[in-house]
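Example record

One chain of 252 residues, shown exactly as stored in the release files.
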Amino acid sequence: LAIKGSPAVVNWFAINSVKRLENQSYSHRKIPQAITFSHTLKGIVMFTLGCIGILGIFQNFNVSITIVLLGLGIISLTVSLGGHNLVKDIISGIVILLEDRYAIGDLIDLDYTMGYVEEMSFRVTQLRDSGGRLSSIPNSKISIVHNLTKDWASIDLRIKVNLDSNLSQAVQLVKQVANELKNDAEWGEKILDSASILGVNNVSQTEVELMIRMKSIPREQWNVAREFCYRLKQIFELKKITFNATITSKYR
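Predicted structure tokens for this chain:
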């Protein structure tokens, strides 16, 4: 009963922790941390209760607990000597958790693969890429991590307008849309800073490219960028300005 009920108890604590964090300003980071710790904690609890259950079974058969513990110690030593990679994975997993390199739900880039952290334990991390492929990576193999959704996120927009368009008017309209989006009741809380117009990035025979950078809370940068482009298209159409926009990102 204890083994069956322990995951439910851990889930209960995790759910209540998430509810308490939802009302705090930094909840966008604390919530995935709470979920990640609950997932790893369930594994620890299940393992601990399993060991206690095994000891209880031996005790019912009048087997000395000291002998059982000695046997388990020998087995653990053998496993640690023969399975040093497993020990390295577990140690690396503990370090990743304590240093908060990433959590469940984060988008991370490991150079050789990229995806959302779908599951995490002390031994492995599972990533789901944009094609739906699930990769299981031993924690000891993870060295350099690029976390794209921690604390805050930015995204670059490349706005191209026709060469014969009024560039000053186009810049003013971009600023207008950026301010409206920042002051919007729904979208304003997702934007940390107003869009920065970095200036003219490129000029071709037919187009002028403007570079715009936006900063938002994690996991919302692409939604914010889409809404920005949608509003910009509406106002540019009213002013008869032809343009196209590119969102610089692999994941959308």
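Notes: The chain has two domains: 2-147, 153-248.
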